[in-house]
Every structure is written in C-alpha cells, then in structure tokens.
Amino acid sequence: MKAESTPIGARLIEQESALDQQFANRSITSEGLKEATTQIGATQAELRNAHLKYHLETAQPSRRTR
C-alpha cells in the first residue's frame, strides 16, 4: 500500500502547493481554478482508492478456505 500511495500523495501535495502559489501570486483565473481543483479531486480519489482497496482486501474472508 505504501509503495503505491506515497507517489500519489506526493503528487497531491505538489498540486495543492501549486494552487496555493497561484493564489499567493494572484495569478489564479477561474479556468485555472477549475482545472486545478478538478485535478486535485481526481488525485484525492486515486489516493483514497489506493488506500482503501487494501482495507477491503483484508476485510474479505479468504476464498481459498471455503
């Protein structure tokens, strides 16, 4: 899980930081905001999926024992 989620988490931090920087520089536009938040949302979903799929796998009973 960690090997998969760490790079996604790093990408999310970079995206959030870039968005913050655009606000700090007052260079953000409506279109840029929409694009950035769409990308951030997709990355958040990817990270959540990477994390939760391992919990799902451990919560399901083994099919080999049936």
Mean pLDDT: 92
The helix/strand order is: HH
Q: Report the uncertain regions.
A: none
Helical amount: over 70%
- Shape estimate: elongated
The number of distinct β-strands equals 0
Give the distance, in angstroms, between the N- and C-terminal Cα atoms: 27 Å
- Name the beta content range: under 5%
The largest pleated sheet is described as:
none
Distinct helical segment count = 2
Radius of gyration: 17 Å
* Global structural class: mainly alpha
Short description:
The chain is mainly alpha-helical and 66 residues long. It has helices at residues 2-24, 30-59. The mean pLDDT is 92.
What does this structure look like?
The chain is elongated and about 55 Å long. 80% of the residues lie in helices and 0% in strands. The protein contains two helices and no strands. The model has no long low-confidence stretch (mean pLDDT 92). With 66 residues, it is mainly α. The longest helix has 30 residues, at 30-59. The protein has helices at residues 2-24, 30-59. Helix 1 (2-24) runs antiparallel to helix 2 (30-59).
Feature tags:
66 residues; mainly alpha; 2 helices; 80% helix
Write the layout of secondary structure elements.
Layout: H1 2-24, H2 30-59
